[in-house]
Design a protein that fits this description.
By secondary structure, this protein is mainly α. Helices cover 75% and strands 0% of the residues. It has helices at residues 2-25, 44-67, 77-101, 105-128. The longest helix has 25 residues, at 77-101.
Length: 129
């Protein structure tokens, strides 16, 4: 049961991040919350990166749903395991990037807690789901 819950939490946070990236891609003024937080509205070149993150986050969110047996989408279980491991490592980097390296206070104080919560949930998910 715990694996189900933490997998769902990871998926919800990941889908939320996907929506943030989509809105930034479409020109919403949330650029200070992502990608270093240097621009309120991302320049065109950076929007391509944000668009890529949108699709990656959708994919990762689906992997969490399958890993927690919430939804079966047909991914190979070893493939999903690799996705969860890689995303957990990415979240570890995100904690450092969002919490220490960024100059954006919005990214630091809003995104770092989400990264920490999802990092912990992702570890728990990996070992309990």
């Amino acid at each position: 049961m715990i694996g189900y819950i933490v997998s769902l939490i990871c998926a919800i946070i990941t889908f939320g991040m996907a929506l943030l990236q989509l809105s930034i891609t479409l020109g919403a003024p949330f650029g200070e919350y992502a990608l270093g937080g240097t621009s309120k509205v991302l320049p065109q070149k950076m929007r391509l990166i944000s668009c890529t993150f949108f699709f990656v986050f959708i994919f990762v969110g689906m992997a969490y749903l399958q890993w927690g047996n919430i939804l079966s989408i047909g991914f190979n279980s070893m493939f999903v395991k690799i996705i969860i491991i890689v995303n957990t490592l990415f979240l570890g980097y995100a904690i450092i990037g969002n919490g220490i390296l960024t100059k954006s206070k919005k990214e630091k104080y809003v995104m770092t807690p989400f990264s920490i919560i999802q990092f912990i949930c992702s570890i728990v998910t990996f070992f309990t789901a």
